[in-house]
C-alpha cells in the first residue's frame, strides 16, 4: 500500500480574485500537487494528462486552484450545467475533506469544466452518501488552449470542524476524471472499485492555523403560491409560507428546524410496473429528509463493492416517506419538526421529530427517531435506533421499532454486518422481531458473501419498509473480478448466487439460482449475460399486469442479456432483454434508456419498459414509457419537462419545472404537474405552484 501523501497548508500573502486565472503571487508560493495516479483504466500508472493543484487559506476561506492540462481541450466532455449533474458522464475535478480526521466521513465538492457543481456529505468510509447536502461556496472555471482551470473559494463556515484546535490537520483526497479515456486518477492512490470519499485511503492537509468557523446559522424562509385542480372543478389560488433553520449547536452537532414544510418543487415519482406480489420501494426525493439521511439508515445496508442479496429497498427500519405521504404517495400536511445530527461524546447521533396534520381519514401523528452509533478503531461500529409513530388525536394508536446493529471490519477485505430489530404495535400481534447476519470478502480478485435473515410475521415497522414478512432467507454468492489484460477489456466478472426463502416453519417459498457473466470495457461500455432458475410457492391468488396467478408451486427459468454504451459519448444507450418462464406461462421483457447530450445546455432522455406476458388466461402487456428534456441556460437557470405514460393503468404524468438560483442556496421554482387518468376512473389532477426561497447565513 502506498504511503499517504501529505501537504502543508499555505496562508495567502494577499487577496485572491476569483476569476479562474491563477495569477496572484500567493498561488506561486503554494506547493504544487501533481503526482496523480490512475485507478482506471491502467491502475497504478501515472495519469495520462498533468494535473497541478494548489491549496491556500486565510482566516475565513479555503482556496483551491487547479490547472488541468489537456492536449485536446476540444474533446473535454461536459454533459450539463445543472447542479448535482451526473458526474460519471463528465470531465471533472473533485476534492474531499475529512475535517475531523477520523478517516471515515467527508465533505465532497465536484466541478466540471463549465462550472457546474455537485456537493455531498459521505459517511462510514464511503458506505453512505447524502447527495442532498448543499454548502455555500464560489467556484470559477476557464477552458483554454492548454486545458482548463479551476479556482475555488470555500468558507470555513460551510464545513464543520473543531475550532478548539489551534492547528488543524484534515484528511484530503483529490481526483480527476477524463471521460473520453474513461480515466480516473487520484492524489492518494485508490483501487478502481473505490471512490473519492474512501477517506481511510486519503492523504492529509496539514497545518491550518487560526481559522474561524463562523456562527454556523442559516435561515431559509420560503413563500408559496399554488393553484390545484381536480377534474372539471375550478381551482383556486392559495398561498403559504414557512421557514427552515440550520444551526451549529457545537462544532460537531447541527440542528435543523422546519415549520409548515412544503415540497411542491420536488419532481414526481417515477412510474413503474410491478410484476411481483410484493410492494415496491420508492426512494425519498424531498430535500429536508434526504439531507443527513445516512445517519438514520438501519436495515439491509449494502457494503459498496460487495454483493449482499438484499438492500434498504428490501428492509429498512426508518423510511422517511412514511412521514408526510400516505400509502398512495399523496401529501399529508406537515406542521413542522426538527432534526439534530452529528457527534457527541464520541458517538455519532441523530434525533428527529415531526408532526403531521389529520387528513383523508389519517389522524394527526407524531414521528420520533433516535439514532446512535459508536466506532471502535480497528474493529468496526455499533449502533442502535428507536422509532415511534404515535397518533396525537387521543386514540392511542401507536407503532414502535427498536434495533441494534454491529458492523465489523476485522481486516481490509472482510466485512461482517448484523442487526436485531423488533416492533410493537397497537393493532398487530405475533412474532414481531427480525434479525440478519451477513459476511463478505472482497479483494482485488474474489467477491464472496453469505447471509441469513429472519423476519417475523408480525414484524411491522410502520415508519420503515419491509418487503416480505414471516420468512427466513439464506443467501450465498461466489464471484471473481479478473482483469485479463486483453485489449479493450477492463474487467470480467463471473459469479453465481443462490437465494433461498422459506416460511418460519421451513417450508420453501422462493428459490433463485443465478449464473452471471458481465464484462466492462475500457471506454466505459459493457455487456452481460445471466441465467436464472426460479421456484415460487403462491399461497393466495394475486394479480399481475391484469392477469391472475393462481395458488400453486411454480418452477421456471429465464435468460437475460444487457449492454450499455459509453456514457462519455454524446449519445449513450442502455438496453436489457429477458425471456423465459413466468409462473405457469412465459414472459418477454425489454427495457431501454438513452441520453442524447446535444450540448452542455440541452440533454434529451428517453426510457421504455415493455413486458409481454403469456398465462393460461391469455396474453397481457405491461409497459411504461418516459421522456425528459433538460435545458440549462447557465449554472443558475434550469428548466426540465418530464412526461411518463403507464400503459397498464393508462395514466399520463407530466411535470414541467423551472428553477432559478438567484443567490447561493436560494431558489425560485415554477412547477406544473398533471396526472391524467385516460380511463376516466379518477379525475385529472393539476397543480401549478410558484415557490421562492432565500438563504441567509450568519
Describe it.
This protein has 698 residues and is mainly beta. The protein folds into three domains: 6-209, Immunoglobulin-like; 291-471, no CATH class; 481-605. 1% of the residues lie in helices and 56% in strands. The strands form five sheets. The chain has a 24-stranded antiparallel barrel. A hairpin with a 2-residue loop joins strand 35 (571-582) and strand 36. 34% of the residues are buried.
Compute the number of helices.
2
Helical content (DSSP H or I, runs of 4+)? under 10%
Q: Which value, in Å, is the CA radius of gyration?
A: 26 Å
Average residue pLDDT: 91
Question: What does the secondary structure layout of this molecule look like, with pairings?
Answer:
Elements: E1 6-8, E2 10-11, H1 25-29, E3 37-40, E4 51-57, E5 61-69, E6 92-98, E7 106-112, E8 117-123, E9 128-130, E10 138-144, E11 147-155, E12 167-178, E13 183-186, E14 203-209, E15 217-230, E16 233-250, E17 253-259, H2 287-290, E18 315-316, E19 334-344, E20 347-356, E21 365-376, E22 380-391, E23 398-408, E24 414-425, E25 433-442, E26 446-455, E27 465-466, E28 471-480, E29 489-503, E30 508-521, E31 526-538, E32 542-544, E33 547-549, E34 552-564, E35 571-582, E36 585-597, E37 602-615, E38 618-632, E39 637-646, E40 651-663, E41 666-677, E42 685-693, E43 696-697
Parallel strand pairs: 1-14, 2-4
Antiparallel strand pairs: 3-13, 4-5, 5-11, 6-7, 6-12, 7-8, 8-9, 10-11, 12-13, 12-14, 15-16, 15-42, 15-43, 16-17, 17-19, 18-27, 19-20, 20-21, 21-22, 22-23, 23-24, 24-25, 25-26, 26-28, 28-29, 29-30, 30-31, 31-34, 32-33, 34-35, 35-36, 36-37, 37-38, 38-39, 39-40, 40-41, 41-42
